[in-house]
Write a structure and sequence with these properties.
Layout (H helix, E strand, L loop, with lengths): L5 E3 L9 E5 L2 E10 L3 E3 L1 E5 L10 E5 L7 E6 L4 E5 L8 E3 L16
Parallel strand pairs: 3-7
Antiparallel strand pairs: 1-2, 2-3, 4-9, 5-6, 7-8
Length: 110
């Protein structure tokens, strides 16, 4: 929003947290937070666990077409904007490997 883009929150539950209107059109964004140098990017699927009768659920990677970007915010205040394609099929990331997606400190205006 600091760059003039509009963000919307889906009304119904879905696989992404925000829809952002940018210069590239509408993009589906999944927001993740982490306290460390690694971040989990898997999604929770209910009734898909090892014991459905117990109410357990499974965690699986996002599928192509479910979202466009991951926005990752760290406890240290770092922000990453990672396209889906480079991390497709993954359930966790070491952020050091994705340093080229680190947003500049001034990318968020206060």
């Amino acid at each position: 929003m600091a760059h003039g883009y509009m963000a919307s929150v889906p009304v119904e539950p879905t696989t992404y947290d925000l829809v952002v209107e940018s210069d590239d059109g509408l993009q589906r964004v999944q927001v993740k937070t982490t306290r460390s140098v690694a971040v989990s990017i898997k999604r929770t699927v209910y009734g898909n666990g090892t014991s459905p009768s117990s109410g357990l659920y499974g965690r699986i990677p996002y599928k192509p077409g479910e979202l466009d970007l991951f926005f990752i915010y760290t406890l240290a205040g770092s922000m990453y904007l990672i396209p889906f394609a480079p991390v497709a099929g993954m359930t966790a990331l070491r952020l050091k490997k994705y340093a080229n997606y680190l947003l500049p400190d001034d990318s968020m205006l206060l």
